[in-house]
Design brief:
Layout (H helix, E strand, L loop, with lengths): L1 H10 L7 H7 L2 H10 L5 E6 L5 H16 L3 E6 L17 E2 L4 H9 L3 E5 L9 H9 L3 E6 L10 E4 L6 H11 L8 H14 L10 H11 L5 H9 L3 H12 L2 E3 L4 E6 L1 H6 L10 H6 L6 E8 L4 E8 L5 H8 L3 E2 L3 E6 L3 H11 L4 H5 L4
Parallel strand pairs: 1-2, 1-4, 2-3, 4-5, 5-6, 8-9
Antiparallel strand pairs: 7-8, 9-10, 10-12, 11-12
Helix pairs in contact: 4-7, 4-8, 5-6, 7-8, 8-9, 8-10
């Protein structure tokens, strides 16, 4: 009966989404299992990755509001704080920051019956402090994520690296549960914010007609898209000055069609750096004519690491580069990594691997 009704729903829903695509990602038994699991009120925790971005926060808060509507006891436990430009989102003031209150965060996680892990593919992405707790507890894990090569730790996994954002996947997840009618303005605002940020305002390659259909549906729920854009992308004087320094530090390597940016800890401090201020800086390097590969290297003395973001055009796979050399990963055209070397040693190391990719970088196809 359930299978027949679900097939009917998809066949007569004017093909908003392709059922065959869904069936490859989460089978009907998984959907039935999750519906059964959520049919009775439970203690649920939602976990985004450490240093959450707009998509991680949008997906987490979007499903938070949805699960509250189902009558569950729900807490978003973020490994650490998000950037200030995300703290306006509906429900953001209810998020518990684990690293600011480890005892309370641990207590909530230990009593959780279900844990949603959103926008990350490996448990270590929550950071060492939270990882220890997640490895000890035994809830039902539900992973929803769009990064490549997810770890096999969840009972239920919804993973597809071709989808623009985890927030778009949350919309699809709610649709698979036949609950789109429960999406209200707050849920829609959170999901739209996640989609907006992870698609680079709908301009990255993973943005599809399906992405736009989801966005349109969210707008129909009352999303104030102009206000969201302004809140996300408004600038401070210090951030623009930091951008100026980043651009002045940019180095272009025509031989490899590569450009990279560096920012030292002292430069960050000089321009009153706040969490999230460097978001999108690497895209300026990628916007250069004849640049197919861009990187930004940011010194983080507090963690003792160099944080790295990679971007590319066409079929040059920065996920492979990041996984192979920089303890990271991500997508084909967008990935992140880190090193424990100094900034002065990281750059020569980066330069030393470029000859290996010279041919690919000079023959990249969009």
């Amino acid at each position: 009966m359930y299978l027949r009704s679900l097939l009917t729903f998809y066949n007569f829903n004017f093909q908003l989404f392709n059922f065959n695509v869904y069936s490859q990602l989460m089978n009907l038994e998984d959907i039935k299992g999750i519906k059964s699991l959520l049919s009775i009120p439970k203690k649920i925790v939602i976990v985004p990755h450490r240093n959450p971005d707009g998509d991680a926060y949008g997906a987490s808060l979007g499903i938070y509001h949805y699960l509250i509507k189902l009558g569950h006891q729900v807490t978003v436990v973020s490994p650490n704080e998000c950037p200030d430009f995300l703290k306006w989102m509906p429900g953001a003031d209810e998020v518990l920051f684990f690293e600011n209150n480890i005892s309370k965060g641990t207590e909530i996680l230990k009593t959780a019956e279900i844990v949603f892990t959103l926008d990350f593919n490996a448990l270590h992405r929550v950071g060492a402090k939270m990882l220890k707790v997640l490895e000890e507890i035994k809830p039902v894990y539900i992973l929803i994520d769009h990064h490549q090569q997810p770890e096999d730790f969840a009972k239920f996994t919804y993973s597809n690296s071709k989808i623009s954002s985890t927030s778009e996947m949350i919309y699809q997840f709610i649709e698979m549960l036949e609950d789109l009618s429960k999406i209200d303005k707050d849920i829609a605002t959170c999901l739209y914010t996640g989609i907006l940020t992870d698609t680079g305002s709908f301009r990255f390659p993973a943005t599809t007609s399906q992405t736009h259909r989801v966005a349109a549906s969210l707008l129909d729920k009352g999303v104030e898209h102009a206000k969201i854009y302004n809140k996300i992308y408004e600038n401070s004087v210090s951030r623009l000055q930091l951008l100026g320094r980043a651009l002045s530090n940019m180095v272009v390597l025509p031989k490899y069609k590569t450009a990279y940016i560096t920012l030292s800890n002292s430069e960050l401090q000089k321009f009153n750096y706040k969490k999230g201020d460097t978001e999108g800086f690497v895209n300026y390097a990628l916007s250069l004519n004849d640049v197919n590969f861009a990187a930004i290297f940011i010194e983080d003395r507090k963690q003792g690491i160099i944080k790295i973001s990679f971007r590319s055009i066409g079929d040059f796979n920065v996920n492979e580069v990041s996984r192979e050399y920089f303890n990271g990963g991500g997508h084909i055209n967008a990935a992140g990594g880190r090193t424990e070397m100094s900034l002065e040693k990281t750059i020569p190391y980066f330069l030393s691997i470029l000859p290996e990719y010279e041919e690919k970088l000079n023959n990249t196809h969009e």
